[in-house]
Design goal:
This protein is mainly alpha-helical and about 550 residues long. Helices cover about 65% and strands about 5% of the residues.
């Protein structure tokens, strides 16, 4: 091997590749754009999606207990949400309660602060008379700032008050949403009735039980179809007489008796866990209902004259050992190792095809072989160019990954909800990934870059044309992507067996490095095994280049 000849071939190929726009795009532009778009853009899109208001319908809202009140005139009380107004403003609440209930809830604090004023008495009388007349009810609601219809009172969040859905915008009106909710509630009631009948039928005859179960399946399918077509994200059904049942339970708690009290009927919350919109809305509704339930329990204990600490006799204290930067780095480490492996393969894609099949199509391969240069020097020069392109792509990708991690707390810190941004806010430094981990990842990827460069150049030399080489190399994306993603699966950890599996071992060790874990025995084993595989691939590439039946394949 002559180093000067290898260097000359390498520099010749560098000049040729710098004239190729496709190569420049894959090496420089793609990694520069890809990581900011994935690291910041996708997360920002997810935050925007989660912040859009979702429609929640509450049926029979008048049967809810007044103390503590779940609803106010503008929706669910903000005190019940962990995020306060930020969460309540992202829910558009519709109820079928009459506007008098909302007016009384809204005017209750005013009546307590000015109970002696004659004007308050007249106002209360005016509201009572307004409830008897639909026209007066509508005007009263308009004066109070509520968006109520004459036939059905609806409660909306303040954020969605100005943008009421209409048929012109392709969305359902409030009346249609409430009608769909009532139809869905009727179907759910039929399902509950059929479920109770199924228990009795199972105890009678097998044929009767089978028929009832078939009916239950049909009703369940109807419920799923109705919910999808209803335009709702969450439906809350308050059972009739719910407030009275809660009151009777609280009253029974104050009486010293050994007789068991009747249970109150449950609130029915309907959602579709397969729909992201419904899942986001349900999480917020569940949070509010849990806090409201805690307040209701505390009031029941207070009326029964029981100490508040008896509500939670078994106290738990959680100790978190992970630092904020470790939690944030764990988020990034699950996302980027597989992408780094893919970028290593992508960086060598076009240079390898162009130096192999591309030279055959241009007719310059014969001229190069006629030169007084050993074929080993020629193939090594071409290989070094492909390796340089792959390494440059990885270096840019890692640099942009570190930049994205650095900018994430700044760009996403105000959005809320991003795990990386939240962890960075608790950390003393805005850098979410250890720079030493990025250096370690680059060092571990070098043998993989050698492997990919040798394999792709071998395939490109075997192909007769540029298009044929593309058809051979493109499936390698899938073959590489699968083991790279397997390393990201939960529960897949480094062991002696996984450390010897190509591609997956690199994905696993990069994930640990980015998380701040340095297992030197596995690092040495993986680096050595990857270098061994790369040496075999390079030897095959040199051997293929020496065969004229491969280079000049007819």
């Amino acid at each position: 091997m002559n180093r000067n000849n290898v260097r000359l071939i390498f520099l010749r190929e560098v000049r040729d590749q710098l004239r190729d726009r496709r190569t420049l795009f894959m090496i420089t532009i793609l990694p520069v754009l890809l990581y900011p778009m994935l690291g910041l853009g996708v997360v920002q899109i997810m935050l925007t999606f989660s912040e859009q208001p979702r429609t929640v319908v509450i049926l029979n809202a008048e049967d809810l207990p007044q103390t503590p009140a779940l609803l106010l005139s503008d929706g669910i009380q903000t005190d019940w949400f962990s995020g306060g107004k930020a969460d309540s403003g992202r829910l558009r609440i519709l109820t079928d309660a009459k506007s008098t209930s909302a007016s009384e809830a809204r005017s209750a604090p005013q009546q307590r602060s000015a109970a002696d004023g004659d004007s308050d008495t007249e106002s209360s009388q005016a509201e009572s008379s307004a409830a008897e007349s639909p026209t007066a009810e509508s005007s009263t609601a308009d004066a109070a700032g509520a968006d109520s219809s004459k036939n059905t009172g609806t409660t909306e969040s303040a954020d969605s008050h100005a943008a009421k859905p209409s048929r012109r915008s392709g969305r359902l009106t409030d009346e249609e949403l409430l009608a769909n909710a009532r139809g869905l509630a009727d179907t759910i009631q039929k399902h509950l009735t059929a479920s109770s009948s199924s228990e009795n039928a199972d105890n009678s005859t097998p044929s009767a039980g089978s028929a009832v179960r078939h009916q239950l399946g049909q009703i369940q399918d109807r419920i799923s179809d109705q919910f999808i077509e209803s335009g709702l994200q969450v439906l809350v059904i308050v059972p009739p007489g719910y407030a009275e049942s809660i009151e009777s339970l609280q009253t029974a708690a104050t009486v010293d008796t050994n007789e068991p009290s009747a249970e109150s009927p449950p609130l029915i919350v309907v959602r579709n866990s397969a729909d992201d919109k419904s899942a986001v809305a349900f999480a917020r509704v569940q949070d509010a209902l849990n806090h409201w339930q805690d307040a209701l329990r505390a009031e029941t204990f207070a009326r029964a004259k029981l100490r508040p600490e008896l509500q939670n006799p078994a106290r738990l204290q959680w100790v978190e050992t992970a630092r904020g930067e470790e939690v944030a780095a764990n988020v990034w480490s699950k996302l980027f190792p597989a992408m780094i492996v893919i970028m290593t393969l992508t960086g060598a894609f076009y240079p390898a095809i162009d130096l192999g099949a591309g030279e055959k199509e241009r007719g310059t391969m014969e001229t190069l072989l006629c030169s007084p240069v050993n074929r080993i020097n020629i193939v090594l020069g071409k290989f070094l160019l492909v390796l340089t392109a792959s390494a440059a792509t990885v270096a840019l990708a890692i640099a942009m990954m570190g930049l994205s991690a650095f900018l994430a707390p700044i760009v996403l810190g105000g959005g809320g909800g991003a795990a990386a941004a939240a962890a960075a806010a608790k950390s003393a430094t805005p850098m979410l990934i250890d720079p030493l981990g990025l250096v370690g990842v680059f060092a571990m990827v070098i043998p993989v870059a050698v492997l990919f460069a040798a394999v792709e150049l071998t395939v490109a030399l075997f192909a007769k044309s540029f298009k044929e080489a593309q058809s051979y190399v493109s499936p390698m994306m899938i073959l590489v992507f699968l083991p790279a993603m397997m390393g990201m699966l939960p529960g897949v950890e480094l062991s002696v067996k996984t450390a010897l599996i190509p591609i997956m071992n690199i994905s696993l060790v990069c994930k640990e490095m980015l998380s701040g874990v340095w297992n030197w025995s596995y690092i040495a084993l993986i680096f050595g095994s990857s270098a061994f595989y790369a040496a075999i691939a390079l030897a095959v590439c040199v051997r293929m280049f020496k065969r004229e039946d491969v280079i000049f394949r007819a």
